[in-house]
Amino acid sequence: MTQARRAVVIGGGIGGLTAAAALHRRDWQVTVLERARSLEPVGAAISLAPNSLRALDVIGLGDEIRDLAAWAGDGGLRTPSGRWLSRSSADAAAERFGGPLVLLHRATLVERLTALLPPDAVRTDAAATLVASGDTDRPARVTTAGGELEADLVVGADGVRSAVRGALFPGHPGPVYSGFTTWRVVIPVPGVEFASHETWGRGRIWGTHPLKDGRVYAYAAAVTPAGGRAPDDEKAELLRRFGDWHDPIPAVLAAARPEDVLRHDVHHIAEPLQAYHHGRVALVGDAAHAMPPTLGQGGNQAIEDAIVLAHHCGDLPDYTAARLPRTTAVARQAVRVARLNLMTGRLGTVVRDTALAALSKAGPALFLRSFDGIADWRPPGGTARSSEAESGGRRMLPADPGRQPLEENTP
User: 188 preceded by cis ω (within 30°)?
Assistant: First the structure.
């Protein structure tokens, strides 16, 4: 009997768990090592576009996640006064890209991914260190408090501050501050009705979106020096920055408690890595290509990475060749979008808003084009779902079909 190949995944976030599930599906023996005491993510919501939903189809999870789409109405982009700069529909996005946009709590996705793994596959409170990347003749080696593990493949899924990346590419400068910080809340806001939206001000943005379970996901971002913290609490900071913006923002802030508000500075990898692998080790997600969350694609690209890695697990150079050009292009686009929607100059902001309003009158397809080549991606080997099935049924559009809710990117 052929002995099962062994993979060790360092990091139990969305990219790591997707990689583990995809490898397990290919009959690999998988161990996930997560340094935190539980897999419950410290974060809020994540938006999944058709590209990552197709990737999840490969491991049999796509339709289950599509069922979590919360809302099928219109939404759009607003100014702080409440004026609509653009209006858009879920149908337009689904028709262009062959599938819906889904917003769900990160913990829900983590739970669904974990359920695809054997009960003993995930070890929490298990810090791990890569000590040897291995080669064609020798396995990779990882040390933990419980001893050393050998693996045919090690997956570095340990985030923007990846120690695995540092071990593989010690000369790389690592992540840089993106110039802004973010706040997130997921809370019930009883009795408040609103159209899903994102609002752009000068150097500040806000978004409000419904979740399937009835709660509201709200996020904010502002240009500010790195390392800042509110002198009192982060709810008070949000009130100072956004308290006079349009409804339902004041109601959301009134419903939030200080302890509900998460704040994180945003970092990204400005200088692309030379490769996403070395020896028997491969990087996925933020460990490979951390990007600003302004396209909502960081988690989506991590899921893509995981599925493509499992497809090319026997030839890691092919994995790099498949992923490095695509993720580099998406990351650069996310940086460009951040410069646009967090513009601080008064005149530039007026010009931006005027142009957005004019483009909206010309048709929503102009916004959708920004996601051409991103949301229409398909995994290698195809998926079990037909294009007809993808384009029908459940649909949800958070804010604007050319935008996704700001996602988490934490150091």
Answer: no
**What pLDDT is stored for residue 40 in this prediction?**
76
**b (16+ CB within 10 A) / e for 346-356:** eeebeebbeeb
Q: Supply the pTM of this predicted model.
A: 0.92
**Total residues found in the chain within this entry:** 411
**Residue 49, both tokens:** 């576009």
- The model's confidence at residue 14, banded by pLDDT at 50, 70 and 90, is very high
Query: What is the per-residue pLDDT across 234-246, written as a single tens digit (0 to 9) for each?
Result: 999 999 999 999 9
Tokens of 21: 């599930």
381 backbone φψ class: left, alpha, beta (φ>0; ψ -120 to 50): left
Task: Classify 204 as helix, strand or coil.
Answer: strand
DSSP run (H or E) holding 112? helix 106-114
Between 322 and 386, the higher pLDDT residue: 322
HSE at residue 408, side-chain half, CA atoms within 13 A, is 25
Structure tokens that stand for 356 in this block? 């957005």
Q: Distance between CA 400 and CA 87 in Å, rounded?
A: 7
Rounded CA separation 4/2 (Å): 6
